[in-house]
Amino acid sequence: MRCPETETFPVPHEWYQSGGLIIGGIASQFYYCIIEDLFKENPSQNLFDDNPHMVTKFYQHILALAFAVKVINENPNLLPNVTLGFHIYDSYYDARITYRNTLDLLFKMHRFAPNYKCDSQKNLIAIIRGLSSDTSFHMADTLRIYKIPQIAYGSFPQEESEIDNFLSFYRMVPNEAHQYMAIINLLQRFGWTWVGLFVTDDEGGENFLQTLEQLLYQHGICSAFTQRIEKVARFDMLGEFFELLDRYYVGLTNDKANAFIVYGDSQTLTWLRSVIFLRDPENKESLTLRKVWIMTTQIDFLHYFLQDILFNNSAGETISFNEKREMRGGLDITNMITFLNKSFFRMKVGCVDPDALEGEAFIIHEDMIVIPLSLCNDHCHPGNQKKKKEGEKFCCYGCVPCPEGEISNHDDMNDCFRCPNAQYPNKNKTACTEKKITFLSYEEPLGISLASFALSLFLFTALVLGTFIMYKDTPIVKANNRDLTYSLLVSLLLCFLSSLLFLGEPSKVSCLLRQPTFGIFFSMAVSCVLAKTVTVVLAFMATKPGSKLRKWVGKSLAYSVVIPCSLIQSIICTVWLMTSPPFPELDMHSLTEEIIVQCNEGSVTMFYCVLGYMFLLAIASFVAAFAARKLPDSFNEAKFITFSMLLFCSVWLSFFPAYLSTRGKHMVAVEIFSILSSSAGLLGCIFATKCYIIILRPELNNREQLIKKCTK
Fold it and tell me: Cα–Cα distances in Å, from 643 out to 488, 650, 678?
């Protein structure tokens, strides 16, 4: 084939420096307004118009390559006996031109002939591509055929299948997946859950959306809107152009979304800046100036060759590639501060290092940033939980107070939760407060009152017992079985003392002793009352002529009543302690703000058996006393016993509903009060009149007086 003498489609921009080894480059500095082919006339032979637009900033990429080649050529230690050169074209952000210029890099020196090398040989060793991912893929379609290494310095999405196909493709930046997680971490750190998305309307933008939107959903973040942006302005279609401007500007002025994520290249950013300027050239609407723009590295990336290669660059940094031909390393988080005069200052505020230890991969210096809100609605503050709004995204929600007994201690909690058993919610339902441990102690007023009452009754009973011992030979003491009287008073003494076991913090010993002790002593007291009544009845029945009951009247009768009745209660308590003994426990649920230290009775059935048996003895005493109430007064205590048993039964019948309706120390106080009041009732009803006669009316305490009353 003969090489052509002239070029059919001349390219307006190229940079060339000769050398033994040539490094090719496709820059992205210029772009032209594209005129759509409407197929109404023959296509123009001129691919370019006379009005190119230039991104001045990207000229530094060309200068960087030229400078690097110059430094290497001047250093004999780097590539001895080898001279580097370069040949650079522009992509013009257009696929057709990118394919054409890639072929130029491969085959052209002075004339263009695809797949033929004309004139002198050009030893092309590698090609550096531009920022755009599209540019890289367009170049890779051609370069992989000729096994020319392609080095990319812009970040872009790349599927696993594409990596396998482009074996000569190397990336000088870390994998873009690191950027995605860095964006998620950034949004979570500042609580931005309502964000706008601007992406290029191409395959790269779609890949970005598919990946990022899934990550957003997984981390509780919603997109307020998604706006796809044309990569190249089409000024030949002004109607559609202004429709695009209006559509873009609606997203920019979203009043709730104050954080925007922009995916694309520098052309994308130029587009957005143009939208802001054309709609608000004097910056009168300042809403857009207060937005947070989160941009990926495609916007502006310049990084400092191949798999299995490891070296240090001139800055002392280690350069190497992983198994996917991606450069190892991290990313910087940069805050671009824009001023009113359109100048800006770039400040590093953090970094992303995927190779760092857990917890150190994402670092952000919050004190260097002014943090706005970007939410669909205000936060649900502690004490409230989120409530979904029908028909809206999950990031838009209402707030409702926590249910009773639950709290929320952070903003935007999905559900309130219950405090641990040892804590309770505070008034605002924002925190848990430690419950106070409570029991009926000797130090508090109620405990002091009950203890004083019990000791007073104990002393008074001891005084009565002492009086009866002192006047043991008087008729009134001897009249109704003196030994039973002593036994009854001793039993009442022990009943008053047993009530003290219910005071103080429950322990294993006190829990074991208090109910059985009270039950046995009280049963002894009631048994003595029953024995007194039976003795009176049998005594009068024995006075009848020919009665055979006379031999039963005496101490043996009293003992045959008191001992068996008390023994039965002792057996019940012993079985209780052997099968299911009481034990101390913490009741954390009965009261909201208190933990009750109490005795678990072990077996509720046995507890009520003890009370039931005691109540049965009282009923028996009441029936016997009621039957003997009309016997002569001088020897008869039946009326007093009847009244005392009536009082006793009334107290314990009232005990059950009061006991079951209270909790904590008040439950214990109810039982102590029942013990003291019923015991005091027995003491007062049976012994008050006798003490009155012994102490205040001693003239009535003689045999003649008693016989006289009996005769009457």
Answer: 16, 11, 12
Please classify residue 128 by burial: count the beta carbons closer than 10 Å to its beta carbon, then call 0-12 exposed, 13-18 middle and 19+ buried: buried
Quick one: pLDDT at residue 306? 38
Per mean pLDDT, which range of 3-7, 89-93, 262-266 is the poorest? Answer: 3-7
Structure tokens at 36: 């759509």
Strands of 569-710, DSSP E: 583-587, 594-600
Q: What is the pLDDT of residues 85-129, one digit of tens each?
A: 999 888 887 777 777 888 888 877 545 455 555 555 678 888 887
* E strand intervals along 289-420: 292-295, 310-312, 318-320, 331-338, 344-352, 362-364, 384-388, 397-401, 406-407, 417-418
- Helical H runs in 111-237? 133-143, 160-165, 177-190, 203-218
Has residue 381 got a pLDDT over 70? yes
Rounded distance between C-alpha atoms, residue 336 and residue 313, angstroms: 27
Q: How far apart are CA 414 and CA 394, in angstroms?
A: 11
Cα angle 465, 470, 475; round to 5: 95
Which is higher by pLDDT, 345 or 119?
Answer: 345
Output b/e per residue, 623-638; b: 16+ Cβ within 10 A. ebbbebeebeebbbbb
Does 1 have pLDDT greater than 50? no
C-alpha of 440 from chain center: 36
Instruction: Please check whether residue 134 is in contact with residue 95, taking contact to mean a CB–CB distance below 8 angstroms.
Output: yes
